[in-house]
Amino acid sequence: MRLKKTYSSREVAALTGLSARQLQVWDASGLISSAIPSHRTEAGGYTERRYTPIDLFELLVLADLRRRRFSVQQLHHLLRILKERFGQRLFDATGGGGSVQLLTDGQEIYARTTSGQFFNILRTPAQPLLAIGNEGLLKELSGKVKKVRRKKAEGRSAI
Predict the structure, then answer these.
(1) Please, what are the domains in the chain?
(2) CA neighbours within 13 Å on the CB side: how many for 112?
(3) Considering the entire predicted model, what is its pTM?
(4) CA distance 108 to 123
(5) What is the pLDDT of residues 27-36, one digit of tens each?
């Protein structure tokens, strides 16, 4: 996939599998905002929100977490803890080379620092965990572009 400078909300919806309405609600609730917000034009209409490649990557991660049945409230909590506790954006913690790496077992989201400490982001983000056992059960969080399915031509002519 070739990166662009910005993506429209339609492009982001197609790549992430999120609906345009979900993007609008997430923007309005402050979960994740577009780099270039929608604004009123002189003609009385509105421009489309535009997202950067980093915004797109973060939306891919958030969309994946929603598909894994994490709630929007948990996503808000995750982003707030990353910012307040670790001083990181979601992008930094999911492939951007930050000091924290996010992992999940499908039930919880964990942060692993470069020094090897583990934190349960959703339950006790300030208390390091004692990690014993198979770390292989944890999957690294990252963004993946959803394959777009194209509809076949419907206008077939009868012979």
Answers:
(1) 1-39+46-67 (1.10.1660.10), 69-144 (no CATH)
(2) 15
(3) 0.79
(4) 8
(5) 999 999 888 8
